[in-house]
Amino acid sequence: MEDEAILELFFARSEQGISELDAKYGALCRSLAYNILGSREDAAECVNDAYLGAWRAIPPERPERLRAWVCRVVRNIALARRRKNTAARRDASFDVALGELEDALASPGEVGDALEARELAHMLEGFLDTLSAENRAIFVRRYWFSDSCAEIAAQVGISEGNVTVRLTRLRRALRKYLEDRGVYV
After folding, report:
1. 38: which residues sit within 8 A by CB, 6+ positions away?
2. Assuming Cys at both sites, which of 9, 115, 154, 169 could form a disulfide with 119, CB separation 3.0 to 4.6 Å?
3. Does the domain at residues 3-85 carry the CATH identifier 3.40.50.150?
4. Interval 172-181: pLDDT, tens
């Protein structure tokens, strides 16, 4: 079913909208939440919470890109759950991917001093636009979807070592891209 038809079901307040949303994007959403949380049960709960959030938000909201919108909702819920689950202990499963970016991005306080978060997001979009489709997919799969290097290698059809090397080069390129625009890290 097309995204527009799914949205129309939501606007008609038909519960079939949730079923169609799950049929089309459920596997992607569960995978995204699982990569962040490392627990199938928690991932399933996050996806269900996202569907409830979609039910409450649509209408009046009408996402232009339903896939991106629902992934953002799932990711935000999963990150909040992860913070709650790991508040008392340090869990390195998701921190590895974000830790890799520490040298390329400033800490949140430094970013706040240098520019607004929206400006940084705009710069990141600009950086992604400079990449080839394959490198963009590798970067996004690692730092948005939190896929492991092995998973990315299987998806892209290259070796895990090649993925690791490319990610290192991409982080270096991101750092240079930001520095060229006056953001020093």
Report:
1. 91, 93, 94
2. 115
3. no
4. 998 888 888 7
Distance CA 113, CA 102 (A): 17
Which amino acid would we find at residue 177? Y
The full set of domain ranges for the chain reads 3-85, 97-180
SS (H, E, C) 87-135: CCCCCHHHHHHHHHCCCCCCCHHHHHHHCCHHHHHHHHHHHHHHCCHHH
Helix pair angle (40-57, 66-85), 10° resolution = 130
Low-confidence ranges of the chain (pLDDT < 70): 87-118, 183-185
Q: What is the pTM of this model?
A: 0.61
